[in-house]
Amino acid sequence: MKLLLTDSGVKNASIQDALVDLLGKPIAESSALCIPTAGYGGPYADPGGPWRFISGRSPSPMTELGWKSVGVLELTALPSIEAALWVSWVREADVLLVNGGDTLYLCHWMRESGLAELLPSLPDTVYVGLSAGSCVMTPRVGEEFVGWKPPAGGDSALGVVDFSIFPHLDHPDCPDNTMAAAERWAAQIAGPAYAIDEQTALKVTGGAVEVVSEGNWKLF
């Protein structure tokens, strides 16, 4: 897949330009499926969060960018739906918009639903992650970001990319997410890792990583 792993959605013109480049056509000509699932899994989850994401009233721009169409793909519902039906929805979409929330809860349902298994067969689909929706594509999240605990334990995510992400760097709502904290986190993460702020995204195509930023970030 073509990946745009954001901290806080499409927050600036540089990130939006990267998105359009990945799509290969204007947003207004592109169909989207939004995946709200991660928003239900966190310790501070509430039903308003997924609604704001779906309705485009979140402070993290994703669904409100002017898409040709937007649908909702709720991963917890997929095991009870005929696979051929929902797989067709995914294959027809130009982009998947994946909500933030709890990374390991999202990882669990991406596997349980069958979406994780489907992703490698979608080379032309653009995947846009928001916070947990980005971190789920990494090998590990680190103990600091374990909220919902998977049945097997641990902090492993999908490992689609070979780097980890420390999100919300120096965000006022996350006072513990300092650069010093990111350095301590990175020291116990095997492999490369990025700390990114809300004005930063990671664009991944063909295994190459490009940092798209109008803010602050660091590669460890």
Automatic annotation (TrEMBL):
Family classification: Belongs to the peptidase S51 family.
Protein name: Peptidase S51
Pfam families in alphabetical order: Peptidase_S51 (PF03575)
UniProt-listed InterPro entries: Class_I_gatase-like (IPR029062), Peptidase_S51 (IPR005320)
Keywords, alphabetical: Hydrolase, Protease, Serine protease
One GO BP annotation of this record: proteolysis
Lineage: Bacteria, Bacillati, Actinomycetota, Actinomycetes, Kitasatosporales
PANTHER family xrefs: ALPHA-ASPARTYL DIPEPTIDASE, PROTEASE S51 ALPHA-ASPARTYL DIPEPTIDASE
Alphabetized GO MF terms: serine-type peptidase activity
